[in-house]
Amino acid sequence: MRRAWLLTLALALGAAPAGAAERARSLVLFVGDGMGFATVAAARALAGRLRGEPGGDRPLAFERLPHTAIVRTASADALVPDSAAAMTALMTGVRTRNGLVAVGPEVRRGDCAGARGRALRTLLEAAEAAGLATGVVTTTRVTHATPAAAYAHAPERGWESDAELPEAARRAGCADIARQLVERPPGDGLEVVLGGGRAAFLPWDRGGRRLDGRDLVAAWRARHPGGAYVTTRGALLAAARAGDARRVLGLFAPDHLAFEVDRPAGQPSLAEMTRAALAVLARHPRGHVLVVEAGRIDHGHHAGDAFRALTEVLALDEAVAAALEAVRLERTLVVVTADHASALAFAGWPARSSPLLGEAVELGPDGLPRPGRAADGRPYTVLGYATGPGPARGVRGRPGEPGFRLPARVPMAHGAHGGADVPLYAGGAGAARFHGAIAQAEVHRLLRAALGLDAPSPTSGR
Ligand SMILES: [Zn+2]
Questions:
Q1: Which domains can be identified in the chain, with CATH numbers?
Q2: What pTM value is reported for the model?
Q3: Is 161 tagged catalytic?
Q4: Which of 26, 75, 83, 354 is catalytic?
């Protein structure tokens, strides 16, 4: 009687009944870096324009996922988080301070000795300990703050290679993030690592930026004799097709990968990397945890270039659609969220037919379009930034040009992040647990619960 009532209540609330479906064998977590609500809405409008439907705003693929939550992102020491703190909360369930990579908030930034024993166990470490395969895919350097918080621990996000590691930190026993990925990875190592940042893995005389002479690519190959190391789109697609590589390391550029709109033929798209990662991870029958970051949404926003930020969101959307085609949702949880928002403003009274990346066109009292005017009689733009490198008024350059800048109210060389909440979309096994307004650390607990991974100790013992 009581059970029946609870079941009725659960169904009425749209939640799946307790049981097998609530558990996910695998997880694909997409993180849009800097993808707040305004960014999603503007990307949806841009997608309509690119399809040739100027007023169109059909939902993106990830917006069709049935379960949603609103996520708070403030870090332990800042109202507006950086990616290191925000991703640490998602990966470890602990709210830490800006600049720290999967170490606790008591650690001072840059203090190597103080970070000893303060490493927080990440979702990928817990997954590896449970025998799952793991992977990280990103459009940034694979050692950049967001992907790093999935597998490394550092009191300073900037320590990506030994060239950035201060002498004192080196003496105190800290290893740079690239070295951790190869030499001290979670479990037996991530099965899939795809992105940019090759220079942090190679010595300077072999095209890298390492000063210690280490060749971390050679070290990875020695550690994983059957693994595939690839540096081009073609080699990645071949490794995914080949059907026997159970591990792949793909480093497709010395630095970040190109923005999708500038992408050279030799670099894979985020959707192609996602598809390849899932093909390799599917060769591990016990399940997997894959983190996919669309890292350059944030870089577009930092530059005041909403065209590049929003087209990166559309590249993320293609990657989500590719994942939804590739996985079986009855056993895989798919979650799409952001580490933090940006300071993009989507405002004014633009008509549906108005340009999106330029000056607003409004509808007059006669219903006819006319240039929008601000209180001072001058035009205004539909999109703009609270902070950034753009002009105070108007637009610099044209959408698609590298120097395209939308206006910023407060001048800053790099636009700052936004402190507003971010969306979360979930579908598949265990997705019904995501609802309400929750903190980022709670997202971590829900992900772990969906996978049935308990964390006996919050620290990783490092
Ligand atoms: Zn950023």
A1: 25-346+413-451 (3.40.720.10)
A2: 0.94
A3: no
A4: 83
